[in-house]
């Protein structure tokens, strides 16, 4: 494979910022050196003068083609991973689903079949457990050994993904012994279903009621519960899509107690709010996801959590449904709106905007979007950094370019943007995936099937 040299840029990792040239050979980074200190030659030279040279993003939470509410997330692995590349993300970890009365292996095989040979960038899998029983618990060990090292359990969605406290405890006990990481969707789903029924009976049918019934207190209660279950099991815990300040407080308290608990939030909770859910007509349906968007005051607490490391990761929970025909399933009944929002293409830019706005520093940007998810899910330093030996998953990022986010220009297979019209400073210019250029000067030059499956190691914070 050809040697590539990236010259003149400011290399930013979670640890350092340095003016250095980066030499790539065989799909890997082989060396970094200050520009005047080497005489390297290469087959291809990428001039990054005035630009940032950053690790490709690691999005630890996506749902390509996920079945939900009688439909499927509108991005396939092909379209979704291409959009991810456009946005500077070079690895996704998607959720394979064990359906009820099926084995984990059957669920995993089905997701491999969807992704195999079509992805633009590398990918791994978490496993959603919807049927915790003696046999699926035993299967967890084999999955961990094969590189699927994290398992999502739900306290929400009764009758679909829901597990009771006993099942969650058993899965955590198994993870404590096999090194796996339990991830939880923490909302009290049984209580929420009562509130949904009561709201509909009162005639409250608009999208904004989705946010009202899925109360912050019910997120906090479930977060508290799964933290204590993980403590009893002696297992680490990762809470996905944290949106409520009360849930952040639960995580912060547990971390202050020294417990190995971790939290993820998503751009939609940092940049959007219940004001969006209340947009007139049926527009609010675009913003229906769970956990739901919260009132604006919660955003400050999430940003603070990201600065203080009470929250460690920003993933997208990319789960797009078109407004026409998919979100519209919930016209007149908010509980039938498929839950999920698009975002895999926007995460790196939105978080860079947070750097521009002074909310986080540049290295923290790389930490929460690249390095921490890579460490959390056993991919570091292959992914998430730029260092000798790392995969050459690299983004040349123009920190001064201006862009307006819009469905008219995005590459996700969905008919709206959650950030329509938002002006951001900063833009992906060139993207390399294992040394192969996949985005070049704002053009896609990759191919389906370049992306390969990446088996993962254990969580590097907990083991
Ligand atoms: O609304 C969401 N988050 N949809 C995707 C499924 C999940 O719970 O993560
Ligand atoms: Zn979830
Ligand atoms: Zn999700």
List the helices and strands and how they pair.
Elements: E1 4-7, E2 10-12, E3 17-19, E4 21-25, E5 28-33, E6 44-47, E7 52-55, E8 57-62, E9 67-68, E10 71-72, H1 77-86, E11 89-97, H2 104-115, E12 122-128, H3 134-146, E13 150-154, H4 165-178, E14 181-185, H5 189-201, H6 208-213, H7 216-233, E15 237-239, H8 245-256, E16 261-265, H9 267-271, H10 274-277, H11 297-308, E17 313-314, H12 347-356, H13 362-376, E18 394-404, E19 423-433, E20 436-440, E21 443-444
Parallel strand pairs: 1-6, 2-7, 8-11, 11-12, 12-13, 13-14, 14-15, 15-16, 16-17
Antiparallel strand pairs: 1-4, 2-3, 4-5, 7-18, 9-10, 18-19, 19-20, 20-21
This protein binds N-(aminocarbonyl)-beta-alanine and zinc ion (ZN) (2 copies).
Residues 63, 185, 241, 289-290, 317, 319, 339-340 line the site of N-(aminocarbonyl)-beta-alanine (URP).
């Amino acid at each position: 494979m050809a040697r590539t040299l990236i010259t003149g840029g400011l290399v930013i990792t979670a640890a350092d910022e340095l003016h250095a040239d980066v030499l790539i050979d065989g799909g890997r980074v082989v060396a970094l050196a200050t520009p005047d200190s080497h005489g390297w030659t290469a087959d291809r030279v990428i001039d990054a003068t005035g630009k940032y040279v950053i690790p490709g993003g690691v999005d630890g939470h996506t749902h390509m083609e996920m079945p939900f509410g009688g439909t499927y997330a509108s991005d396939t692995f092909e379209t979704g991973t291409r959009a991810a590349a456009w946005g500077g993300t070079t690895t996704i970890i998607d959720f394979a689903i064990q359906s009820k009365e099926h084995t984990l292996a059957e669920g995993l095989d089905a997701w491999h079949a969807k992704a195999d040979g079509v992805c633009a960038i590398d990918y791994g899998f978490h496993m959603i457990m919807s049927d915790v029983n003696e046999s699926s618990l035993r299967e967890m060990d084999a999955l961990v050994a094969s590189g699927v090292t994290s398992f999502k359990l739900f306290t929400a969605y009764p009758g679909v993904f829901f597990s009771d406290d006993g099942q969650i405890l058993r899965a955590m006990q198994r993870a404590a012994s096999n090194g796996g990481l339990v991830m939880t969707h923490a909302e009290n789903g049984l209580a929420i279903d009562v509130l949904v029924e009561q709201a509909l009976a009162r005639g409250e049918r608009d999208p904004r009621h989705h946010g009202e019934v899925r109360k912050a207190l019910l997120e906090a209660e479930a977060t508290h519960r799964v933290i204590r279950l993980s403590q009893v099991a002696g297992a680490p815990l990762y809470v996905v899509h944290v949106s409520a300040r009360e849930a952040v407080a639960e995580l912060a308290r547990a971390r202050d107690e020294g417990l190995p608990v971790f939290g993820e939030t998503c751009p939609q909770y940092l940049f959007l709010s219940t004001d969006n859910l209340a947009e007139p007509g049926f527009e609010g349906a675009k913003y229906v996801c769970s956990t739901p968007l919260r009132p604006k005051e919660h955003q400050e607490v999430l940003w603070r959590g990201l600065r203080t490391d009470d929250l460690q990761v920003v993933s997208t929970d990319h789960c797009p449904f078109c407004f026409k025909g998919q979100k519209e399933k919930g016209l007149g009944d908010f509980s039938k709106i498929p839950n999920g929002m698009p975002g895999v293409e926007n995460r790196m830019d939105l978080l860079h905007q947070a750097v521009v706005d002074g909310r986080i520093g540049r290295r923290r940007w790389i930490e929460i979007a690249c390095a921490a998810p890579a460490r959390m899910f056993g991919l570091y330093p292959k992914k998430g950094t730029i260092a000798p030996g790392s995969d050459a998953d690299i983004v040349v990022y123009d920190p001064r370019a201006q862009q307006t986010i819009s469905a008219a220009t995005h590459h996700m297979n969905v008919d709206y943007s959650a950030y329509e019209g938002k002006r951001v400073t900063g833009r992906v210019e060139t993207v390399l995936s294992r040394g192969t250029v996949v985005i070049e000067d704002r053009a896609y030059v990759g191919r389906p099937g370049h992306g390969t499956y990446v088996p993962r190691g254990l969580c590097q914070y907990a083991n």
